[in-house]
Amino acid sequence: MDHVPGDTSPDPAPSDALPDVAPQLRALRRRRGLTLEAAAQRAGLSPAHLSRLETGNRQPSLPMLLALSRIYGTTVSELLGEAPPERDPVVRADRSEPVEADGWIYRQAGGAGRALQCLRVHVPYATRADIVRVHPGEEWIHVLEGRVRLALGEAVHVLEPGDSAHFDSLTPHRIGAATSGGAELLFVHTLMQSPVAELCLGDGTPHRR
């Protein structure tokens, strides 16, 4: 069921930065036949937090949008309510509106409804609070500006402009800028699903907000 009893914590004012994401999140979850509790467990969120996302009282971060898109078998574009009439192979720069969530600023760099999601991302400075993510699929990043700190398992790599990384997303990973002003990168990931997908971990335990 969608009602979360006993949740009396105050909600922040709704944000209009992602105007279509709240109804899309609820509609896509129901289309997948998932309860609020089941979807929240797969995403590493509390049911109360996912409920706030679906009612527009919380704004999802980019990692949350990516995780939820995998759970629901869709794309970030569909979560944002974008439904182009046809698949145009060309993505024009002037038609790609930036979206900001929790310091991440990103633009669509690929077509909607594809198995590959391609984004141009501004990544904020890395902190210890950044979420470690684990999920099926592959990711590829290419640094355009600034320096990026990529943690893969126990290894930490610092990527310079022009450097790339291609890795299995089942490897626990964290991405953040190594420069205070952030970094610009191209980000590509596969859209894959699994019954045990979408674990968002912090220090080895399920991440809750």
TrEMBL record:
User: What is the top-level taxon of the source organism?
Assistant: Bacteria
Q: Give UniProt keywords alphabetically.
A: DNA-binding
Q: Which Pfam families does this UniProt record tie to the protein? A: Cupin_2, HTH_31
HTH cro/C1-type domain mapped to chain residues: 25-79
Which InterPro entries does this UniProt record tie to the protein?
A: Cro/C1-type_HTH (IPR001387), Cupin_2 (IPR013096), Lambda_DNA-bd_dom_sf (IPR010982), RmlC-like_jellyroll (IPR014710), RmlC_Cupin_sf (IPR011051), TransReg_Diox_bact_type (IPR050807)
Task: Spell out the residue ranges making up region: Disordered.
Answer: 1-21
- Keyword Repeat assigned to the entry: answer is no
SUPFAM superfamilies in the cross-refs: lambda repressor-like DNA-binding domains, RmlC-like cupins
* Name of the protein this chain belongs to: Helix-turn-helix domain-containing protein
